[in-house]
Amino acid sequence: MADGALLAQLHFGREDAERDVQDGLLLRGGFLPNAAYRGALSGRKMLIIGRKGSGKSAICMRLKAAGAGHYAGTELIPPDETAGEEIRRFELQGLPGDSAKALIWRYLFAVYAARHLVAHAKDAHGRRPDSVKALARFLKQNGEAADGRFGDRLAQAVRGLQTSLSLEAFGFKAGLDLAQAPLSEGAQATRQLDVVEQGVAQAFTDLGCGTRDGSGEPDASGSHGPLLLMVDQLELVWSAETDSNSMVIGLLLAAKHAASLYGSAVRVLLFLRADIYDSLHFGEGDKFRGDELRITWTEQALRDLALARARASAGAELTSETLWGELFPAAVEGEETATYLFRRCLPRPRDAIQFLNLCQETASLIHGRDRITEADVVQAGRQFSDWKLKDLALEYLVAHPFLKHLFPLFQNTGYVVTRAVLATRFEAAADSLHRLFPAYADALTVPGVVDVLYAVGFLGVRRGNDVVFAGGDDLPAQFHETEFHVHPCFRAALGATSAIDLRHFEIAAAIGRVVQGGNQGGFNNGTFTSAPTRDHRLVQDLRRSCHSILAQTSRALTLAEGARDEITEQINRVLDEVNALPSGGSSAYDLEDRVLHTAHYFDTLAAQLLAGGLDDSTGAGDVVRRVQEEARRLRRQAGGSYGSSGSSAGP
User: How far is CA 97 from CA 62, 102, 131, 225, 521, in A?
Assistant: First the structure.
């Protein structure tokens, strides 16, 4: 059995890779190599795409830490707000925006490569050929030799490309030798940059840098790995504006150009958020398909990650059985604990790490326990759900600033919603949304809202017997798909913990209201005080109606599982009340009112199902009709309408 010391040591790491590296956990075994990491390490993939928190920066940090074992050098290019503004505003007469911004990135890659070569030539090769000496002079003449703020250096590069660079190191003076006739601003910058890039490429050739097999590993001849240039966290300087998209497109074009120009001597690796990459539209986009790799996480992969990080903090001898059977409870609310946890977070490491740490802190710090209990997990789950609902709105604040204003459409109701019901709810809020976000009026329609909520992972779509959430290569929500489910991650925060919004059956309170003020029927020493034959028949009618509805519900195979479970639960509550009745008799007034109240509840249940969009299109039509039929039959058997013990027949 796990003790308090082991639980106190248990930690699943930080939410950001930079602090994970500083703490050492990422390097002590807390990193789980996946397909994206292997693709990046091998050089087969240049573009790593994933959602926020999916592990892009962890891969980046891990590759940087790999260092000399694989690469001649590693450089992480860190865009900041100053640099981002410089790139976004950069324009050159005669060039479209994407091409102009590609020149900035190409220049940056060339400068990073030149700085690397000047130091690398002496340290790794013990010589400095003339081409390397020329690079050293170029860097000094253009103020690029010394370390400095990235934003300041970029501003200087912008000025150089927009006016003229000092190219004397390469045999040119003030750019006068570049052309016989005047050039446009864009053509002049392109010619200058070509000279710089050719100087860098020549230095790589003269030193014999690069690998022969492209693997990144040193080969038998003693050749070393490539220079690795990485660009991460572009989201810090991106907005949903045209110039921001041009900045990213320019980066892609520059990376492709560098790969062609420098060959195996330089490898460029880009880490992009999926929503940014998917928003880009440019003519050469199809040329990057073979370079891209999307990060996806399965439940099993998250389990493996959790165990790896637990071992990195609590000891390598920690087993899966100890983690999920002793430190954590074996099950939560009837579900295996790991499945319970990872179903309630979006499939990405950051969410899993936060949820796991929150469970540990709830048990250890708040309650002072030596193991995590089921109650701790449930309590942590409520707080985690609140966090994630807020985080989702912030994650997409730039692209979808209206997102948090859509959440009230799903509050305090069932987590299963049909397109028709969503349309009704949205119609009531549409004017307010359009007034608040007039620039997004075209997207703020029912199809547009469905597309956005599915794309960000808030809604899943019912396909066959499965509910599919966005991720990987899944299709977007199709127009003919009509049933959607709120992701389990957000249900607690929204108060949408049941599949459908059904009022619980509360016979005792209802009967108390019906008979208030007199005519209190009841039981007399455990026996009915009225004719046993009729009362026995009424009890049997109640029981038969419940079983009939339950049977119909179980046959509704196309009904969403959560909705089927919720209906079953409510009918079983009615059945429990019926089975609790004594086997004798009661006053006719009391038992008839019980039957009439049940019939009224069935009518309400049917109305709620229809109001929730659970009709024939969702497989619930037969269930609704059976509930209505049983309500009518019970009312006839009791001999009146709800609230009356008279003999008039109900509808």
Answer: 34, 9, 32, 34, 84
pTM: 0.76
SS3 53: coil
Q: Convert 327-393 into a string of H (helix), E (strand) and C (coil).
A: HCCCEECCEEHHHHHHHCCCCCHHHHHHHHHHHHHHHHHHCCCCCCCHHHHHHHHHHHHHHHHHHHH
DSSP 112-157: HHHHHHHHHIIIIIS---HHHHHHHHHHHHTT-SS---HHHHHHHH
Buried b (16+ CB within 10 A) or exposed e, 428-465: eebeebeeeeeeeeeebebeebbebbbbbbbbbbbeee
Please give the pLDDT value at position 178.
52
Contact (Cβ atoms closer than 8 angstroms) between residue 642 and residue 597: yes
Quote the CA–CA distance of 453 and 419 in Å, as a whole number. Answer: 12
Distance (Å) of CA 343 to CA 294, 302, 360, 415, 487:
21, 11, 18, 15, 9
The torsion angle over the Cα atoms of residues 615, 617, 623 and 628, rounded to 10 degrees, is: 30
- Residue 156: is it exposed, middle or buried by C-beta count within 10 angstroms (0-12/13-18/19+)? middle
3-state helix, strand, coil in the chain (%, to 5): 60, 5, 35
302-313 pLDDT, tens digit per residue, is 999 999 999 988
Under a CB-based contact definition with an 8 Å cutoff, are residues 373 and 363 in contact? yes
DSSP 79: -
CA angle at 558 for the pair 554 and 561, rounded to the nearest 5°: 65
C-alpha angle 465-471-474 in degrees, rounded to nearest 5 = 60
Instruction: Pick the more confident residue, 408 or 22.
Output: 408
Phi/psi-derived region of residue 619, left when phi > 0, alpha when psi is between -120 and 50, beta in every other case: left
Query: How far apart, in whole angstroms, are the C-alpha atoms of residue 155 and residue 147?
Result: 14
Kind and range of the H or E element at 572? helix 561-579
Q: What is the pLDDT of residues 130-158, one digit of tens each?
A: 999 999 999 988 888 776 666 667 777 77
- SS3 annotation, 506-570: CHHHHHHHHCCCCCCCCCECCECCCCHHHHHHHHHHHHHHHHHHHHHHHHCCCCCHHHHHHHHHH
Q: 87 to each of 99, 158, 532, 639, how far by Cα in Å? A: 12, 8, 88, 80
Partners of residue 527 on adjacent β-strands = 524
Rounded-to-integer distance, Cα 503 and Cα 10, Å: 42
* Distance in angstroms between the alpha carbons of the first and the last residue of the chain: 63
Q: Which residue has the higher pLDDT, 356 or 37?
A: 356
Mean pLDDT, residues 17-29 taken together: 63
Residue whose token pair is 């999916």: 54
Helix (H) or strand (E) holding 39: helix 35-42
**Side-chain-facing half-sphere of 346: CA atoms under 13 Å:** 29
Q: Give residues with Cβ within 8 angstroms of 616, minimum separation 6.
A: none
Weakest-pLDDT range from 146-155, 380-389, 524-533: 524-533
